[in-house]
């Protein structure tokens, strides 16, 4: 049975469909009972069992009762049942029992549930040991005189069809796709110098590159080579305001879209050396419009903020409009003000960016505000004089003497 469900109320291109498919998983088992006459007299309710067999994920067995299943039948009938032999709840299935004609005439005795599926539907077996079959499968006297019994043997064929329901949606065919290697291929062009058409002279070093790739990645290079006043035929460019090592890292990023290992490039494991390179690289990224490189540098600098470098990083963040980096530097400096003020970078900050000192004071105030409020709340529970003291500006300022030092420098 197949049920179609369509989500196409408006019949547009976004409609989808699925199928609920009910079907049977069929399996068969052949049972031979040899020495039928020796099984007689077992008594009603006693049975011979087949080996278990699996169909549809469940185990099954055929039970043959030589003297019938019911005592009231007085051994007048043989009984045959198919039983659920494994754990299961509400297992729905169709069944067929066939007693084989051993004369070769093909007149088998068939009891089929499959033929009646439209009338009554599948049979439900509630639990392990539940059975489907016939208490009066065959009158015993008739059976013993028939062609179904030959050489004291009976042959039976059992079929089980376990009902399964599945939902079938649109088929999605997948093909394994390797990760992009564009950066690797472009980096090979840079390193091999294949097709290079521009040479940058930076200090004592020369770097060859491709104008089209540079123009695709940087709006500054695009304007320089292909803009209204650009020169697409230019073969050499002199750069005097950038270090060769910084330009080399920037080129590698342009071609690979990855930030190289700075420790490997500098040949040093010093965090300070890497921080200085990141600061210069951020400035270069801002100059050439490489926003992703700028953000990568900003993220790395946030991770390595320290007392020795926070002042210079703060000045850099303000100059190149790195708002997140700036906020983190201000908070770090505010909470570690005494140590930060002893650094060389703080002196440079005073001279070059006096407006940042005002922002630093505001950050200090916001950092100190919560502890002050908390202490005020604690004092208000026991003394009103504590509130007056906290409200006094001079008294509050005396808690952080570094604030007065910053104000004097302003």
Describe the structure.
Among the domains are: about 1-10 and about 20-165, Sandwich (Apoptosis, Tumor Necrosis Factor Receptor Associated Protein 2, Chain A); about 325-410, no CATH class. The chain has about 400 residues and is an alpha+beta fold. The relative contact order is 0.07. The strands form 3 sheets. Strands 1, 2, 7, 8, 9 and 11 form a 6-stranded antiparallel sheet that branches. Strands 3, 4, 5, 6 and 10 form a 5-stranded antiparallel sheet that branches. Strands 13-12-14 form a 3-stranded mixed sheet. The model is unreliable at about 1-5, about 5-10 and about 370-400 (pLDDT under 50). β12 and β13 (about 205-210) form a beta hairpin. The two termini are about 85 Å apart. It has helices at about 35-40, 115-120, 140-145, 180-190, 210-215, 220-225, 245-255, 260-265, 270-285, 290-305, 310-320, 325-335, 335-340, 345-350, 355-380, 385-390, 395, 400-410; strands at about 1-5, 15-35, 50, 55, 60-65, 75-85, 90-100, 110, 125, 130-140, 155-170, 200, 205-210, 235-240. The protein is built from 18 helices and 14 strands.
Outline:
The protein is an alpha+beta fold. 42% of the residues lie in helices and 24% in strands.
Question: Keywords for this structure?
Answer:
42% helix, elongated, Apoptosis, Tumor Necrosis Factor Receptor Associated Protein 2, Chain A, 410 residues, alpha+beta, 18 helices
User: How would you describe the shape?
Assistant: elongated
Radius of gyration: 44 Å
Number of H/I helices: 18
Q: In CATH, what is the homologous superfamily of the domain at 2-11 and 19-166?
A: Apoptosis, Tumor Necrosis Factor Receptor Associated Protein 2, Chain A
Q: Could you tell me the mean pLDDT?
A: 82
Low-confidence runs (pLDDT<50, min 5 residues)? 1-5, 7-11, 372-399
Second-tier CATH architecture of the domain at 2-11 and 19-166: Sandwich
Structural class: alpha+beta
Portion of residues in helices?
40-55%
Protein name: BTB/POZ and MATH domain-containing protein 3
Pfam families: BACK_BPM_SPOP (PF24570), BTB (PF00651), MATH_2 (PF22486)
InterPro entries: BACK_BPM_SPOP, BPM1-6, BPM_C, BTB/POZ_dom, MATH/TRAF_dom, SKP1/BTB/POZ_sf, TRAF-like
Function: May act as a substrate-specific adapter of an E3 ubiquitin-protein ligase complex (CUL3-RBX1-BTB) which mediates the ubiquitination and subsequent proteasomal degradation of target proteins.
């Amino acid at each position: 049975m197949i049920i179609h469900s369509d989500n196409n109320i408006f019949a547009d291109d976004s409609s989808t469909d699925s199928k609920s498919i009910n079907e049977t998983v069929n399996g068969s088992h052949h049972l031979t009972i040899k020495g039928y006459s020796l099984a007689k007299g077992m008594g009603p309710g006693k049975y011979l069992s087949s080996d278990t067999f699996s169909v549809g994920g469940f185990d099954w067995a055929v039970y043959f009762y030589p003297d019938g299943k019911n005592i009231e039948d007085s051994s007048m009938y043989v009984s045959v049942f198919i039983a659920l032999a494994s754990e299961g709840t509400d297992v729905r299935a169709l069944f067929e029992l066939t007693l084989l004609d051993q004369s070769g005439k093909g007149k088998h005795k068939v009891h089929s549930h499959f033929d009646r599926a439209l009338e009554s539907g599948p049979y439900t077996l509630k639990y392990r040991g539940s059975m489907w079959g016939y208490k009066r499968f065959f009158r015993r006297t008739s059976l013993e005189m028939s062609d179904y019994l030959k050489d004291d043997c009976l042959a039976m064929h059992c079929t089980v069809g376990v009902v399964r329901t599945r939902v079938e949606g649109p088929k999605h065919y997948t093909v394994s796709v390797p990760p992009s290697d564009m950066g690797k291929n472009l980096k090979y062009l840079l390193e091999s110098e294949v097709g290079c058409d521009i040479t940058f002279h930076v200090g004592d070093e020369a770097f060859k590159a491709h104008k089209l790739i540079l123009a695709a990645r940087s709006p500054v290079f695009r304007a320089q080579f292909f803009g209204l006043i650009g020169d697409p035929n230019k073969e050499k460019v002199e750069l005097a305001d950038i270090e060769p090592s910084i330009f080399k890292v920037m080129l590698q990023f342009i071609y690979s879209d990855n930030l190289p290992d700075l420790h490997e490039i500098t040949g040093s494991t010093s965090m300070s050396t890497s921080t200085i390179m990141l600061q210069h690289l951020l400035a270069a990224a801002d100059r050439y419009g490489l926003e992703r490189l700028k953000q990568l540098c900003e993220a790395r600098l946030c991770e390595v903020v320290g007392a020795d470098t926070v002042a210079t990083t703060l000045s850099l963040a303000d100059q190149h409009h790195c708002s997140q980096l700036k906020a983190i530097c201000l908070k770090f400096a505010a909470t570690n003000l005494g140590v930060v003020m002893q650094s060389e970078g703080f002196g440079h900050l005073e001279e070059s960016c006096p407006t940042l000192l005002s922002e630093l004071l505001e950050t200090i105030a916001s950092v100190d505000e919560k502890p002050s409020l908390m202490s005020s709340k604690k004092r208000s529970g026991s003394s009103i004089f504590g509130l007056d003291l906290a409200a006094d500006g001079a008294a509050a300022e005396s808690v952080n003497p570094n604030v007065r030092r910053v104000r004097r420098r302003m």
